[in-house]
DNA sequence: TATAATTGCTCTAGTCACTATAGGTTCAAG
DNA sequence: CTTGAACCTATAGTGACTAGAGCAATTATA
């Protein structure tokens, strides 16, 4: 049996995490990922803990958290005994953000649909799309 | 009666359109707004047509259209004899985009809500938020 | 009319979260 | 030992602005 720790090159880490190679280097540069050890030739070599963290980062990004929020997650993960209120706060804040974005987009969707409905498929002169775009008062909703 | 055309400084235009001064200059720079005439001292002076266009741009931006899409609107508006199908196409494309963005955000919202629901308000160590972040398999939906 | 306050000017650099490119080096397979 | 893929650094580019420095012009007040 192999007792040695599994090592990964940056390319392997990329394939395993679905994070692009330049992005991994970028995360290292901004301090999200620890600097890994290097081979004699200067190439990065990672262990599975780096993979775990990278997956966590990728997942949080996919969930829409900002880099700063992730930085905070990582910081909090280093204090397992602390209460998780801060964690809650960040998540709640993000949820509010997402909810607002959805509302905005719903309004936009309604307006786009009405734009399409109102277009008589004639020439631009008669097309209300430009009209709607030019005149905010045509809007049914605030934005 | 004042027969002279109303003139606006960039600051007045900004207040009337709710577009910030540097943004107006930026729009001019990228060719969305025509270069206005200048006073002897070199300051920009606008007429109401610029205000109309700026409002149109601001409105389209608020609706989520990209600068490129707006450029396209302006181009099409300059050819009123052309069929408005192109415009329709842009709008339709945008509508699809918005619909997809909404769907994605709805999934995200559900995920965040379940994360918060599962939080036991104890310590970070036991908090499921970090757990969920670290393990994609906790997710009910794709993202 | 003098001065002060405000607004304007250009130019450059910064934001976010990457992505792309150039030009060179190291590694692993055959 | 050679070849070619994968790696390295450094710089610049993306979109749509935003911020700052260091001046100049305009407008309001005394």
Can you walk through the features of this model?
Two copies of one chain form a homodimer. A two-stranded antiparallel sheet of chain A has the order 1-2. The first copy, chain A, has helices at residues 10-17, 21-29, 48-62, 67-77, 85-118, 128-134, and strands at 37-38, 44-45. By secondary structure, the first copy, chain A, is mainly α. In chain A, a hairpin with a 5-residue loop joins β1 and β2. The first copy, chain A, is elongated. Mean pLDDT of chain A is 82; it is low at 138-143. The first copy, chain A, contains six helices and two strands. Chain A has a domain at 1-66: Orthogonal Bundle (Multidrug-efflux Transporter Regulator, Chain: A, Domain 2). In chain A, 59% of the residues lie in helices and 3% in strands. At the A-B interface, α3, α4, α5 and α6 of A face α3, α4, α5 and α6 of B. Chain B binds a DNA duplex (30 and 30 nucleotides) through residues 9-11, 20-23, 25-26, 30, 39-44, 61, 66-68.
Tell me briefly what this model is.
Two copies of one chain form a homodimer. With 143 residues, chain A is mainly alpha-helical. Chain A has helices spanning 10-17, 21-29, 48-62, 67-77, 85-118, 128-134; strands at 37-38, 44-45.
| Largest sheet data of chain A | 2 strands, antiparallel
* Assigned CATH architecture of the domain at 1-66 in chain A: Orthogonal Bundle
Task: Give the CATH class of the domain at 1-66 in chain A.
Answer: Mainly Alpha
Chain pair forming the biggest interface:
A-B, 53 and 52 residues
**SS elements, strand count of chain A:** 2
CATH topology of the domain at 1-66 in chain A: Multidrug-efflux Transporter Regulator, Chain: A, Domain 2
């Amino acid at each position: 049996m192999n007792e040695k720790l599994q090592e990964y090159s940056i390319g392997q880490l990329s394939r395993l995490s679905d994070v692009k190679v330049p992005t991994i280097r970028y995360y290292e540069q901004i301090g999200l990922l620890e600097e890994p050890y290097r081979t004699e030739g200067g190439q990065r070599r990672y262990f599975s803990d780096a993979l775990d963290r990278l997956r966590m980062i990728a997942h949080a990004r996919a969930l829409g958290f900002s880099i700063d929020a992730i930085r905070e997650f990582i910081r909090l993960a280093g204090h397992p005994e602390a209460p998780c209120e801060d964690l809650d706060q960040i998540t709640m804040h993000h949820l509010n953000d997402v909810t607002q974005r959805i509302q905005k987009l719903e309004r936009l969707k309604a307006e786009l649909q009405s734009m399409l409905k109102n277009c008589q498929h004639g020439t631009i002169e008669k097309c209300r799309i430009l009209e709607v775009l030019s005149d905010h008062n045509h809007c049914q909703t605030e934005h």
